[in-house]
Write a structure and sequence with these properties.
By secondary structure, chain B is of the alpha+beta class. Chain B is about 45% helix and about 10% strand. In chain B, helix 1 crosses helix 4 and helix 6 runs antiparallel to helix 7. In chain B, about 45% of the residues are buried. Chain C is of the alpha/beta class. The chains are: A alpha/beta (about 375), B alpha+beta (about 200), C alpha/beta (about 425). The structure holds fe (ii) ion.
Chain lengths: ~375, ~200, ~425
């Protein structure tokens, strides 16, 4: 096993997963000396009746829920965060629980910064100041549709990113009552994001044994449960395994440099407002096809994680890296027609691709060239690899 | 912003489950007490525990909801002052004569040497409905053991043996790691002790 | 990959690893607003010149408050209180622990008192006494084995009451674990062997005991790979820095694995012979590991068989039939012990009767075995072992481990259900 000359690694959150794990929240809060959390969640989660089940888990505890702020929709902005922070202060809360994914978690992180630092906007951090203090305890409870950033140290508010180690959630509670998906598209999108993140973590030439160790279970759950999860989104086994995969892939991803598919998808998403998952579905196959064509050397960890020990051991050494790419391609194409298959279908004008490629190449710190990004994008525009 | 739209929520209580756990703990404590008198192996295990040792089984959070409100619904014999005032707990101890006895659920004035605290009512339900064995429960952090840890093993062993006497094989197998074979525990001993334990539970 | 019906995992230690990892400490401490650390270490580490290596690496970038090097073999609460006094006198704002298990445990204790106030560690005894973030805390392990840098427990003795106190809290986890091969370069061959076997045991037990979970499995898997690829080589060529780095990585990863999935009977037996006969922990681990695997074989043969993959590589794994894999694992661990025994000129004991103290008398007399077997009931690692372990079972295992003969598998008592994860 190859160990890089230097690496850093951190998974901050405590992960609790499985039966009856919501009931652990009161004792986790107690470990932080907190009794009154503010719950931040989304309208859709309220409508699906998850909040009711969630409250039931607090029966027979001494925890009081300071309020259930269920105003979050598809956009996390500072004014909404201010409202929630106001509620937090009025009720005298001492911790935050985010029930849901994506924007809910982003908003919870923002509220946490506002109430811990006692400020009312984030402009200082947008200008480069760093968050250097312990924030309030933040617990997240994933529901469906992950954007892959919940378990990381990143928050996106008003489409601008802030990264700091203190933004890691403290506890992630994955409970089978909360994870079942709402629709096949949802499951497919979260799965693709997790796959792309874990793929980036393992194909980065500077990956280290610890990121590989975290990406490994993520990929094996994806390859085992993603096909089942998209056909039966309500299935408990599949949904909890996929939720685990999302969290683990995010943990691996926050310890590696973003891959090309991640960068391109993010850029496209910022321009168009369409979620990154849809882009990753199109970009990852193109990227894999490109890597196969160029015969780029990658580690065989990808193959091991996707197919397991038995099949890995049965394959000759020199074929393993290539077969890893094949397996990843097969997995992503098992989604068939669930998500759009080309950038053209998503109505991206072709002339915009050049700009996207340029910005992504710039952000990659010279790991990818402008031309590489362009090739992948153009292939994705046609959707030939999908 | 109208904060009244987001009311504060004081979570409720699970009445039936609390009563189940209260009754179960009472039975279990009495059974251990009986087994300690009846069976040689349990006796030996009790001997390794120092005198005046006190064990407490408790469902967290302590004192959260005394069963005061439900007193009328509980069977007469279980209602004791402790469980009414101090929530779900059971205290057992070795007295000066070396007998291992159930001491009710009033922790006042007692020095607790070893405490097994279930993290929540649901966690206690997992173990007390035999969905998880004592060891699996421990592995799944359903309860926290604190205090004189060295004696926790003896207590667990006593609990395992009691379960073997108390429960039919098919259930007991869910609870213990290794069900004793004939050569280790003769059927005579098992069934005789089972009868004796049940008898003593309700009479003494 | 198996997903258990319930698991929790927490390892919030930032790990930095590399040939120049020590140089990064000042910047990372500054990120936590710490500029004046107290170094806690013991005389052995200091006299080996390791403190100087760390100081030199941080040269000019960091002002060190003081160096406290009075930590004894067994961490003691009075030493903790003493170190806290130094911490306050010199106006320190963070802690760097350089050393093995007892140094790290002592430093955890110092961190509690230094952060939460007061002047006596005993005030913080009991579960849940630590409920908030402590001072920035860096650990630089000097043995690649214990994995203490990844555990949330500090075991500190109270010599007056003759007890070991356990302090348990996620807040005791260090903020930073620094793995630098310069720290283990001077470790003698036989110590390298036994400490690495301790790490190997952590990884194996994390993999097959009942609290296993996907993340700890994956960490353990890689730890086993790195140890089996590098251990013999490092024992033969002590200057192999890349091998040393791999062992340090393996030890930390095994630490992360076992602190979340707990250990089993190998540690149960090891702790007991350690307490009663003062057998070094690593030595006990390397002796008992094959027996632990053998004893649990009938309960988790599939899972133990999977260990063959990281231990011997995919080729051997593929060419061994499924039902023979677990036995092959045990064989290979025995062979590794034998190889280490040969490579260290006999200093790495294979059985209990081969352990001698400085005067040449045996450390574990055969007459002690029944006493040891009875005492296993005092250790908690018994609970997480897949198969039940009672004193009579332990006695049978101990006798074989003393002689150095494999277990008679027919004599192991069976009768449990399939292990539920
Ligand atoms: Fe160990």
């Amino acid at each position: 096993m190859l160990i890089p000359d230097y690496y850093q690694f951190l998974i901050h959150p405590k992960i609790i997963s499985g039966k009856c794990s919501l009931e652990n929240i009161p004792s986790e809060l107690n470990g932080y000396d907190a009794q009154k959390p503010l719950v931040i969640t989304g309208k859709n989660i309220m409508e699906r009746g998850l909040v009711k089940k969630f409250i039931k888990a607090f029966y027979d505890s001494t925890v009081t829920l300071g309020g259930i702020f269920d105003e979050v929709r598809d956009y996390a902005g500072i004014s909404l965060a201010r409202d929630a922070a106001f509620l937090y202060k009025e009720r005298g809360c001492d911790s935050i629980i985010a029930l849901g994914n994506g924007t809910v978690v982003d908003l919870a992180k923002a509220v946490n910064v506002l109430v811990s630092e006692k400020i009312d906007n984030l402009s200082a951090y947008h200008e480069g100041a760093s968050i250097s203090r312990q924030l309030k305890p933040l617990i997240i409870v994933p529901a469906c549709r992950s954007n892959g950033m919940e378990a990381t140290n990143v928050m996106t508010i008003d489409n601008r990113r802030i990264t700091a180690d203190f933004l890691y959630p403290d506890v992630i509670v994955i409970d089978p009552r909360m994870t079942p998906g709402c629709c096949p598209e949802c499951v497919a999108e979260s799965g693709v994001i997790a796959l792309t993140h874990a793929f980036a973590a393992l194909t980065d030439e500077a990956h280290n044994p610890m990121t590989a160790a975290v990406a490994h279970p993520a990929l094996s759950y994806l390859s085992e449960y993603l096909p089942k999860g998209v056909t039966r989104p309500k299935n408990k086994d599949a949904s909890i395994a996929l939720a685990n995969a999302s969290v683990l892939a995010a943990s691996a991803y926050s310890n590696t440099r973003p891959g090309m598919a991640d960068l391109l998808a993010e850029e496209l998403s910022i321009i168009t407002g369409i979620s990154v998952g849809k882009y990753m579905r199109i970009l990852l196959p193109s990227l894999i096809a490109d890597m196969q064509k160029k015969k780029i050397k990658i580690s065989d960890e990808l193959f091991l994680s996707l197919v397991g020990m038995e099949a890995y051991a049965a394959t000759p050494v020199q074929e393993r890296p290539q077969k890893g790419l094949d397996a990843a391609m097969k997995l992503i194409n098992s989604l068939k027609g669930l998500l759009p298959k080309s950038l053209e279908q998503l109505k991206i004008q072709k002339y915009k691709l050049a700009e996207v490629a340029r910005v992504a190449a710039e952000r990659s710190a010279e790991r990818f060239t402008d031309a590489d990004c362009r090739t992948v994008l153009e292939q994705a525009w046609e959707g030939s690899a999908v | 912003m109208n904060i009244n739209k987001y009311p504060e929520i004081q979570p409720g209580k699970k009445l039936i489950k609390r009563i189940y756990v209260a009754v179960f703990m009472w039975f279990f404590a009495r059974a251990i007490q009986a087994a300690a008198k009846v069976d040689e192996e349990v006796k030996k295990e009790v001997e390794t525990i120092p005198a005046n040792f006190t064990l407490r089984l408790i469902v967290n959070p302590e004192k959260a909801f005394p069963l005061f409100f439900y007193a009328k619904m509980l069977p007469r014999f279980i209602v004791d002052k402790g469980i009414l005032l101090y929530g779900l707990q059971m205290i057992m101890g070795k007295d000066k004569k070396g007998k291992f006895r159930y001491q009710g659920s009033d922790p006042r004035g007692k020095k607790i040497n070893l405490s097994m605290a279930f993290t929540s009512l649901e966690a206690a339900m997992m173990v007390f409905t035999f969905r998880e064995s004592l060891c699996t429960g421990y592995a799944h952090s359903r309860f926290v053991v604190e205090g004189d840890l060295p004696f926790a093993q003896s207590i667990m062993r006593i609990m395992d043996l009691t379960a073997v006497f108390l429960l039919p094989k098919i259930v007991a197998k869910l609870v213990v790691k290794r069900y004793p074979k004939w050569s280790e525990m003769s059927p005579l001993r098992k069934y005789l002790n089972r009868v004796l334990v049940y008898l003593r539970m309700f009479t003494v | 990959m198996l997903l258990p019906s319930f698991y929790d995992f927490c390892c919030r230690v930032k790990t930095i690893s590399g040939n120049k990892a020590l140089e990064k400490i000042p910047a990372l401490l500054a990120g936590m607003n710490a500029y004046r650390p107290l170094i806690i270490t013991d005389k052995g580490v200091a006299s080996a010149g390791l403190v100087d290596v760390v100081k030199k690496a941080m040269e000019n970038k960091l002002k060190i408050g003081a160096v406290y090097d009075d930590v004894p073999m067994d961490s003691d609460y009075k030493i903790v209180n003493d170190a806290v006094r130094v911490y306050r006198q010199k106006g320190c704002d963070s802690i760097i622990a350089i050393g093995g298990g007892s140094v790290i445990d002592t430093a955890k204790g110092v961190n509690i008192v230094a952060s939460l106030g007061g002047d006596n560690l005993l005030d913080y005894e009991g579960y849940g006494a630590v409920k908030r973030k402590l001072k920035p805390f860096v650990v630089v392990p000097t043995t690649a084995g214990t994995g203490s840098e990844m555990t949330l427990v500090a075991v500190i003795t109270d010599p007056d009451r003759k007890i070991k106190m356990n302090f348990v809290s996620y807040f005791l986890l260090p903020d930073l674990a620094v793995l630098d091969p310069r720290m283990t370069r001077t470790l003698p061959a036989f110590l390298t062997a036994s400490t690495a076997m301790d790490a190997m045991t952590h990884a194996c037990e994390a993999y097959f005991c009942i609290e296993k979970n996907p993340i700890s499995d994956s960490f353990a898997f890689r730890a086993i790979t790195m140890i089996s690829e590098n251990l013999l080589n490092v024992v033969k060529n002590p200057g192999n820095l890349n091998g040393r780095l791999a062992l340090a990585n393996a030890s930390t990863m095994a630490g992360a694995a076992f602190s979340n999935s707990m250990v089993g009977m190998v540690h149960n037996l090891g702790h007991t012979v350690g307490a009663l006969c003062h057998v070094p922990h690593g030595v006990a681990m390397s002796i008992f590991l094959p027996y632990g695997l053998e004893y649990n074989l009938h309960r988790s043969a599939d899972i133990i068989g999977e260990i063959l993959f990281p231990l011997a590589g995919p080729e051997v794994y593929a060419s061994t039939r499924k039902k023979h894999r677990a036995e092959r694992v045990i064989e290979l661990i025995r062979k590794l012990n034998q190889d280490l025994h040969d490579a260290t000129g006999g200093k790495h004991p294979r059985f209990l009767k081969e352990i001698y103290d400085r005067n040449g008398s045996p450390v574990v007399p055969q007459s002690m075995l029944p006493v040891i077997a009875q005492a296993i009931m005092l250790d908690g690692a018994r609970l997480t072992n897949p198969e039940e372990l009672l004193p009579e079972d332990a006695r049978m295992v101990l006798e074989h481990a003393w002689e150095g003969t494999p277990l008679d598998r027919k004599k192991i008592k069976k009768g449990g259900r399939k292990v539920k994860y």
